Amino acid sequence: MDTTPKTWRLRVELDDSPGALARVTVRLADQDCNVLALSVIPVPGGVLDELVVQAAPGLLPADLVAAVRAEGGRCVGITAADLHDLVDAPTAALRAAALALHDPNAIAEALRIVMAADSVVLTPTSRDTTAPDREVDFPASSPATPEAAQSYTARRGWSSFTQVERARGQALMDLLAARGVAAPQPTALLTDDGMALVLRPGRAGDEDAVADLHSRCSMGTLFHRYHAGVRTVPRRWLHRLLSPPRGSTAVAQCADRVVALGQLIPMSTPDSAEVSLLVEDEWQGRGVGTALLGALAGAARAAGRRELVGWCLPAETGLVRTAARAGLPTSVRREDGLLRVSIATGGARATGPGRAESASRQVASG
């Protein structure tokens, strides 16, 4: 049996009567649970009490729900929690706003923090105005053409968004709009030898440029990326490289050439995504892969992914070194004849603005 205490985040509806919350906390204490944090969220007709609880070893979420029900309450949501949930909410919101003002590419991550969302992703604006209670859209900008409109979509599976949380998200977007901070834009990158590149999302019109990228890469570089002998890329691959199912792609461009390509593909576990990089030979060792991996880690973090997983040949160390330069902790183990490189999506940006620039804005040095 697992003897490690588990930490849970509960949202509870209680009768508006003196001592109701105290009775719940006493019952939890009787089951050797420690209430680490408590906050009150106003909702129409009353309030929600949110508790962060460290449960006794072996105690299941159903046991916590039963304890709430035994005192006449209703548990409207429960999810696993970590130390980030113990941060004071106003402090976290201020730090998130500073992060978004500092780096427009971190807006999704900032929204996720402010709204306590599972994920926030930038998507084409939906014409469906009946979004469910567990999904909220915020327009990213006001483009001239409706077809180009994008929204930040916040989602949370374990509990509906309250009106207070929606208002917090809108307040952040209003602040950013007032300061002229728009949706993420292509980001300039300067290598150590002074070459300028642009880091941006991949798009359907990049097929020929990506095909040319592959043709300029050596067999060794392609083998490290695909673990197979590849010389040319079939046309049908190009669409999947640029528009992976459920995933995303970023490219680094110099003039009219795409010189690097990175991908994120969600894995079966909700907090992990597979990452892959391809950097043209003459651009390797100049910080392009570092910036690309940092940008992908930021996107994964905003989407609620805590881990990136890369698969490497046993003698390959490039991904581990790239992650180290990007300030991302790694761990490595052998699996099915390959190295499974686990990269934490936290790192330099997780410390907050002022400690480190976004990797895609750094002057590359490695």
Automatic annotation (TrEMBL):
Q: What segments bear the compositional bias annotation Low complexity?
A: 347-356
Coiled coil, from the record: none
Q: Domain N-acetyltransferase spans what residues?
A: 197-344
UniProt region (Disordered), positions on chain:
125-151, 347-366
Q: Which InterPro entries match?
A: ACT-like_dom_sf (IPR045865), Acyl_CoA_acyltransferase (IPR016181), Bact_Acetyltransf (IPR050832), GNAT_dom (IPR000182)
Q: Which residue ranges have biased composition labelled Polar residues?
A: 142-151
| Molecular-function annotations in GO | acyltransferase activity, transferring groups other than amino-acyl groups
The protein's matches in Pfam families, at most eight in alphabetical order, are given as: Acetyltransf_1 (PF00583)
Q: Does the keyword Endoplasmic reticulum apply?
A: no
Q: Which UniProt keywords apply?
A: Acyltransferase, Transferase
Q: Which PANTHER family match?
A: AMINOALKYLPHOSPHONATE N-ACETYLTRANSFERASE-RELATED-RELATED, GCN5-RELATED N-ACETYLTRANSFERASE
Q: What is this protein called?
A: Acetyltransferase (GNAT) family protein
Taxonomy of the source species: Bacteria, Bacillati, Actinomycetota, Actinomycetes, Pseudonocardiales
